[in-house]
Design goal:
Layout lengths: L2 E3 L5 E3 L4 E2 L3 H11 L2 H7 L5 H6 L8 H5 L3 H11 L5 H19 L4
Antiparallel strand pairs: 1-2, 2-3
Length: 108
């Protein structure tokens, strides 16, 4: 699914349906980006949940995830990966997700 942000701050998929740029939409996108293969490649953990649990965080629900301060996520990322910030890690995960999806459909 292709996602684009429109001028109203909403995210639209390629079919034109709007998703509010809400925490739930962001949470689901982040969970997709921070796939098992990405986490295994760039951290010493097997998945996103274990990565968060290493510092006592839980993100089973969007509310749990949203309650984690970004500064704490930055600290977790610095301590356990090559990235300097949470935002940098998520951005890189998005790139990784795109590349793996293109490879899956054999796009060159």
């Amino acid at each position: 699914m292709l996602l684009e942000e429109n001028a109203l701050g909403k995210t639209e998929n390629s079919s034109g349906n709007s998703l509010e740029n809400s925490s739930k939409g962001e949470f689901n996108i982040i969970k997709n980006y921070l796939s098992r293969s990405f986490i295994k490649k760039y951290t010493s953990f097997d998945d996103f949940e274990l990565f968060l649990n290493s510092e006592g965080f839980s993100a089973i629900t969007e509310d749990e995830f949203q309650s984690i301060p970004e500064a704490k996520l930055d600290s977790l990322v610095i301590k356990n990966s090559k990235f300097k910030t949470w935002s940098e890690m998520v951005s890189s995960a998005g790139d990784y997700f795109f590349v793996t999806q293109m490879k899956a459909i054999k796009f060159k």
